[in-house]
Amino acid sequence: MGNHYSAGRHHRRNRTDSETVVSHPDYKYGPSPYNAPQIPANSNKMAALSLPYANVDCNLRALAGQAEGFGRLAVGGLHGSVYHVTTLSDDGPGSLRYGCRKKEPLWIVFDISGTIGLSSYLNVSSYKTVDGRGQRIKLTGKGLRLKECEHVIICNLEFEGGRGPDVDGIQIKPNSKHIWIDRCSLKDYDDGLIDITRESTDITISRCHFSNHDKTMLIGADPSHHGDRCMRVTIHHCFFDGTRQRHPRVRFAKVHLYNNYTRNWGIYAVCASVESQIYSQCNIYEAAQKKVAFKYLTEKAGDKEEACSGCIISEGDLFIAGTQAGLLTQSSCSFHPSQHYQKWTIQPATMELKHVLQHFTGWQPVACPADHPPSH
């Protein structure tokens, strides 16, 4: 799956656009065993880059258990039958809502393209894959709610135009775990695009495109929710495209950010609040008017006497267009992703990676793979 991080030495040199690309002794490079996605041929280097998961589109269920990072155990509807969405209606037989409420494992695919207008949150129950490959499905009005569920995969959908108080594109709370959100395009909701709160954990957000929005991604909703110390989230190969803030904003959780591209934020890129531990690795930060990427907010945990902020470690990040990191000089952060998983696909933060993320994040016109039975 491309170039894998090899756990070991911690390389923490960051770069600005005035520096040349430095070698990273912590990474092992080599040709990908899979075919890389087609990339605009504007440079030989760019054509050599590969994104993770190039093998997951060879078979319908090849997504299951393949996420990198904290959501790596998510199997979705691997062990269930295939459910076909045959109508764009909000509810009723053949609808997305009808399939998502069923209690048994299901791999949900779409036989049609178009917009599904949701009149209320659509609750996704455990052991579901909502697989938008092969069609172009847009959810609007409300969003998905992953409530007290586990093993859910959401892939290749669009979310736009969610209206109403507390309406998020994807709301993950409470006590949900083993979640993977991959290749989704999200924009223009009244609250958040993805919110992860109330002790939900072991989640990966990958290859998503976020745009036209204010409060993009919240991890941990309130300093009184000290049970959120259990939360662990990986965000990688995502494109935060001019969204105003929260890429993400974090309370309590451990968050691994790698190979994301964040540009033109309106307040900050990444915010560390009460007791959060953020590992920012080989990301690209490109400022517009607001130059500082990292922000710290001090809050008091509900079970503590003194207020504190969180911590951020930046390793191999690229800061361009005059971006200032804004890192605190001293950090008490002890979190490193290798304490929790041993490999992940990563590239150095380069301009070539930036162009790849601009083209290959969010909804993609990929075919729906055949559901081949496993070979024995």
Largest sheet: 10 strands, parallel
What percentage of the residues does DSSP assign to strands (E)? Answer: 25-35%
Q: Unreliable segments (pLDDT under 50, ≥5 consecutive)?
A: 7-13, 17-48
Label the structural class.
mainly beta
Q: Which strands sit side by side, in order, in the main sheet?
A: 2-30-27-24-21-18-15-12-9-6
Number of strands: 30
Distance between the first and last residues' Cα: 24 Å
The share of residues in helices is: under 10%
Regarding quaternary structure, what we see is single chain
**Compute the gyration radius: what is it?**
20 Å
Q: Give the averaged pLDDT, no decimals.
A: 89
Q: How many H/I helices?
A: 3
- Give the overall form: globular
Q: How would you sum up this structure, described in words?
A:
The protein is mainly beta. It has helices at residues 44-48, 96-100, 351-359, and strands spanning 4-5, 15-16, 27-28, 81-85, 106-110, 114-117, 122-123, 128-131, 137-141, 144-146, 150-155, 158-162, 170-172, 177-182, 185-189, 194-196, 201-206, 209-211, 217-219, 232-236, 239-241, 249-250, 254-258, 261-263, 270-272, 277-281, 284-286, 294-296, 311-315, 318-320. Strands 2-30-27-24-21-18-15-12-9-6 form a ten-stranded parallel beta sheet, covered by helices on one side. Strands 4-5-8-11-14-17-20-23-26-29 form a ten-stranded parallel beta sheet. Strands 7-10-13-16-19-22-25-28 form an eight-stranded parallel beta sheet, with no helix packed on it. The radius of gyration is 20 Å and the shape is globular.
